[in-house]
Amino acid sequence: AVMLDRDGTVMEDAHYIKSPDQVRLIPGAGEAVRRINDANVPVIVITNQSGIGRGLITVRDYEAVKNRFESLLSRLGAHIDASYYCPDIPSETGPSRCRKPATRMFEDAIRDFNLDPAGVAYVGDRWRDVAASKKLGGRGIMISSPMTTGDDLRKAQEDAIETAPSLKVAVDMLFGLTEKDGSA
Predict the structure, then answer these.
(1) pLDDT score at 93
(2) DSSP letters along the chain, please?
(3) pLDDT in tens, 26-40
(4) What is the pTM of this model?
């Protein structure tokens, strides 16, 4: 399976996105998801949604955005097999078992899909999106986005997590079409 972060990886990160009208797929991301689908590999979205916990968006808002996101992917012949979200705000509620980099959402997906953790790929634009690869096994690939920080890049390098300039290149890497450093 490929576990994808949503905001900044497949769709533009609009910070606490509330309206379906704000949903914009990142160029090439829909086609990358379709390539994973075409290989009969489950695509699972794992996303932190602290806007719910902060009262900035409702679960209904999240669902409306999710539905629009999935509709846009569908228009490109792509689909998401499942989505998991965490509304927690550790700075206000204390430690969270689900908020990435915690692993509960990943563990739930592994259980729900009866996956071998060693065969899972974790792809996202922040270190927290791919850190589960070091705890649970599998392969982490961090892609670049405007939200990727220098600290994220440093942690990825320290953890020997691969990096890629885009989701398309990350998918190429997963299917062995490019080298581990993203070159052809």
Answers:
(1) 78
(2) -EEE-SBTTTB---SS---GGG--BPTTHHHHHHHHHHTT--EEEEEE-HHHHTTSS-HHHHHHHHHHHHHHHHHTT---SEEEEE---HHHH---SSSTTSSHHHHHHHHHTT--GGG-EEEESSHHHHTHHHHH-SEEEEEP-TT--HHHHHHHHHTT-EEESSHHHHHHHHTTSS-TTS--
(3) 999 999 999 999 999
(4) 0.93
Per-residue pLDDT tens over the stretch 92-124: 878 899 999 999 999 999 999 999 999 999 999
Distance set, CA 82 to CA 6, 40, 93, 112 (Å): 12, 14, 26, 10
> Cα separation of 76 and 123, whole Å?
20
Per annotation, catalytic residue among 7, 61, 129, 172:
7
* Residue 107 exposed, middle or buried by CB count within 10 Å (0-12, 13-18, 19+): middle
5 catalytic per annotation: yes
**Cα–Cα distances in angstroms (integers) from residue 30 to residues 35, 38, 72, 114, in the given order:** 9, 12, 8, 25
Say if residues 4 and 50 touch (Cβ distance below 8 Å). Answer: no
